[in-house]
Amino acid sequence: MHEPVLHHYPSSPFAEKVRLILGFKQLSWRSVIIPRVMPKPDLLALTGGYRRTPVLQIGADIYCDSALIARRLEAEKALPPLLPEGQEFNVASLAAWADGQLFLHAASLAFQAEAVAQRFAQSLPGELKAFVADRAALFKGGTFDRLPLEQARQQWPTLMARLEQQLSHADGDYLFGEPSLADFAVAHSLWLLRAMPLTAGLVDAWPAVAAWLDRVLGFGHGSYSELSAAEAIEIARTATPAPLPAESGLEGNGWRVGQQVAVAATDYGVDPVEGELLHAGLEELILRREDPRAGLLHVHLPRLGFRVTGR
């Protein structure tokens, strides 16, 4: 049995979402710190091209995208649940909205020029320039459009008021009463804003939301220990991928199981992962690929928000 290995960096909001889920599940895990910007040769040895943060590794199985990672951690430890019975659709839908629209607004506010200057005030010379160039490349070719700052400022109170309203009606201390995936998906964008004095007030001005965020962040990150990238690659090389899911496959137009395909995100970070399609489930696609350093790998990618192209 392999411990979960999270490939991440401390300031990544989507990594914070997964770290909080690990804390909520009270899982022990290994931490591999990756570069904030490209190149990321050790990460790409595992993913085959996917460069976004975070990535979860369990042995020789590599999970891309925080939404799919959350489902894998739910399978790792079912209780407490991320998708409470009877609320699965509502929770998953709100989480998808938070990872998309809410994050779009938060990113615009968090990376306005003055806030960026604060974030990189103690950085090495050239680090800010490298970050800006890296993020320009990250968003090139996808459907993700940067939201103008003034529009984000105008619309932010509406989003926060809706969260306040949801919390006021919830039968408990969280968005759907008991903690769920929705809480962690919303929290990471607000955590990003609260990290800087310039934008913290955008969260803390809303008392119910601010108190709720404190409760979510209170789950912490679980128990973890550091691991080097070389050690993680060696774990993958010596492991055997897990058996494929028993779920019946669901193929698409122009591609099928057993075919060589390329799978890429459609919104941003559209670098493709190429390999043999082993499984096409309702939630995930599994590709078989081999790497000179990491050996035989199964790379898991979400079905939603990703495009499959037959080779």
UniProtKB/TrEMBL annotation:
Keyword Cytoplasm: no
Alphabetical list of CDD domains matching this protein: GST_C_family, GST_N_family
InterPro entries reported in the protein's UniProt record: Glutathione-S-Trfase_C_sf, Glutathione_S-Trfase_N, Thioredoxin-like_sf
Organism domain of life: Bacteria
Keyword Electron transport: no
Keywords in alphabetical order: Transferase
GO molecular function, one term: transferase activity
Ranges where the GST N-terminal domain occurs: 2-81
SUPFAM superfamilies from the UniProt entry: GST C-terminal domain-like (SSF47616), Thioredoxin-like (SSF52833)
Protein name from the UniProt record: Glutathione S-transferase, C-terminal domain
